[in-house]
């Protein structure tokens, strides 16, 4: 009994990509079970001989399968394997936060027969998982400048090897001629080579983030990538040199999801760990058209926002989530950043944003003032989206960070709501209020 299976496919499955999440994300449970049985048979000594070499594929025959059942399994597996290496299913490459996965994906990127098909690279995607900092770290005195931890030294060695493997993988995106999008998800744990989940210290977490971003920006110098999504990042106090030095950025879309101040404070013991929103923004250029700044699990604000030097003359869409607006407008603040793009901005979305109210002053800047100003000056805006929780006010507490202001007066609430509605009506009418 003889069937033919593409050796190119078999090598991808058995030798090169075994255990790689990028490959098996396309396979269902039934296929995986068949894979386990057939690979066991193949590695157990199935005899094969080369019979045909058409173009890219070297065909191999499997003799003496021993049963009709095994023939059916191998036949179905062969068909499935061929489908799995089609360009459509290899367009997205997933990298787990482990040494083995990073090494496997580095090999895939270096494979001349596969790299032209990869359009997207996704790092450490975890479905339905909420970002949770390790509870055993809360309350400990960690710093970003020392390795003062009680973590096993063997784990520290694996962290170093993991960073090296990830650096090689992301520097290698220059070899992907059709890469369009990269998604980096940062979670405070990694998979050890023994399969154990290891929780990370603030130093490891932020250092790995820095390592990956540095490697990625190195690859971006010669890459055609146009979209970058960063999830669960902690912003440095100042802009990374490798970000500011990339003056000819190819990005047209950038999404940054920031870890909220409260979560980082409790984990790291530092109230100043989260820095400027501008730390990861590309240098001013004419390619960026869409920008998303989120802090999904709590408000984000930095006293060193430093946005005054950023202007993107082609920016059309801006999304802000859980971002705190300054007490008063300033060139470095978010409010003025929005207005600097009044000539090109078509869509503005605010989700659960808040205005900061000074603790001991009556000089409060209400949302109604912002809506009225934007209605008059955002002349190109075609759509404004504000969720039902988008008219909040917060106070800055020295110990607890930003806390809700509490109940505001009915008059203030009505003024805010009516000003927002007038803003929306102005946009819908296609005219500007003078």
Overview of the molecule:
The protein is α/β, with parallel strands linked by helices and 434 residues long. It has 12 helices and 18 strands. The strands form 4 sheets. Strands 4-5-6-9-10-11-12-14-16 form a 9-stranded parallel β-sheet. Strands 13-15-17-18 form a 4-stranded mixed β-sheet, with no helix packed on it. α3 packs across α4 (68-84) and α11 (367-377) packs parallel to α12 (410-429). The chain is globular. It starts with a strand and ends in a 5-residue tail after the last helix.
Secondary structure layout:
Blueprint: E1 2-6, H1 7-16, H2 21-24, H3 29-43, E2 48-52, E3 59-63, H4 68-84, E4 92-95, H5 99-109, E5 120-123, H6 153-171, E6 181-185, E7 189-191, E8 197-199, H7 202-220, E9 227-233, H8 241-244, E10 253-258, H9 261-268, E11 290-294, E12 317-321, E13 324-325, H10 334-339, E14 347-351, E15 354-356, H11 367-377, E16 383-386, E17 392-397, E18 401-404, H12 410-429
Parallel strand pairs: 4-5, 5-6, 6-9, 9-10, 10-11, 11-12, 12-14, 13-15, 14-16, 15-17
Antiparallel strand pairs: 1-3, 2-3, 7-8, 17-18
Distance between the termini: 84 Å
Strand content is: 15-25%
Q: What is the ordering of alpha helices and beta strands?
A: EHHHEEHEHEHEEEHEHEHEEEHEEHEEEH
Weakly predicted, low-confidence segments: 1-28, 41-66, 136-150
Q: What characterizes the major β-sheet?
A: 9 strands, parallel
**Total number of helical segments?**
12
Number of strands: 18
């Amino acid at each position: 009994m003889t069937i033919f299976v593409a050796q190119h496919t078999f090598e991808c499955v058995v030798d090169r990509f075994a255990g790689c999440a990028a490959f098996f994300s396309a396979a269902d449970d039934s296929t995986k079970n068949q894979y386990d049985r057939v690979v066991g048979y193949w590695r157990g000594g199935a005899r094969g001989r080369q019979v045909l070499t058409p173009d890219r594929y070297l065909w191999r025959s499997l003799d003496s399968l021993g049963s009709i059942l095994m023939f059916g399994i191998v036949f179905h597996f062969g068909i499935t394997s061929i489908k799995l290496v089609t360009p459509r299913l290899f367009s997205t490459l997933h990298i787990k936060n482990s040494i083995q996965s990073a090494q496997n994906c580095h090999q895939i990127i270096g494979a001349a027969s596969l790299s032209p098909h990869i359009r997207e690279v996704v790092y450490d995607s975890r479905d339905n998982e909420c970002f949770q900092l390790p509870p055993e770290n809360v309350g400990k005195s960690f710093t970003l400048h020392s390795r003062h931890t009680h973590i096993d030294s063997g784990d520290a060695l694996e962290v170093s090897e993991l960073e090296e493997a990830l650096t090689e993988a992301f520097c290698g995106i220059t070899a992907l001629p059709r890469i369009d999008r990269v998604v980096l998800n940062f979670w405070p744990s990694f998979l050890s080579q023994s399969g154990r989940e290891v929780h990370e210290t603030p130093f490891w977490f932020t250092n790995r983030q820095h390592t990956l971003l540095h490697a990625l920006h190195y690859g971006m110098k010669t890459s055609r990538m146009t979209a970058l999504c960063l999830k669960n990042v902690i912003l440095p106090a100042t802009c990374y040199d490798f970000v500011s030095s990339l003056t000819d950025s190819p990005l047209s879309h950038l999404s940054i999801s920031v870890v909220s101040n409260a979560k980082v404070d409790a984990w790291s013991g530092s109230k100043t760990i989260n820095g400027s929103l501008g730390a990861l923004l590309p240098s001013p250029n004419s390619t960026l058209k869409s920008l998303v700044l989120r802090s999904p699990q709590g408000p984000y604000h930095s006293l060193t926002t430093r946005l005054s030097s950023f202007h993107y003359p082609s920016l059309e869409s801006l999304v802000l989530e859980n971002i705190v607006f300054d007490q008063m407008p300033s060139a470095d603040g978010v409010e003025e950043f929005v207005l600097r793009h009044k000539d090109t901005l078509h869509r503005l979305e605010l989700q659960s944003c808040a205005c900061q109210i000074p603790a001991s002053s009556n000089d409060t800047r209400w949302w109604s003032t912002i809506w009225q100003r934007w209605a008059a000056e955002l002349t190109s805006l075609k759509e404004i989206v504000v969720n039902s929780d988008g008219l909040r006010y917060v106070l800055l507490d020295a110990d607890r960070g930003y806390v809700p202001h509490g109940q505001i007066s009915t008059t203030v609430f009505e003024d805010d709501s009516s000003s927002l509605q007038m803003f929306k009506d102005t946009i819908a009418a296609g005219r500007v209020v003078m």
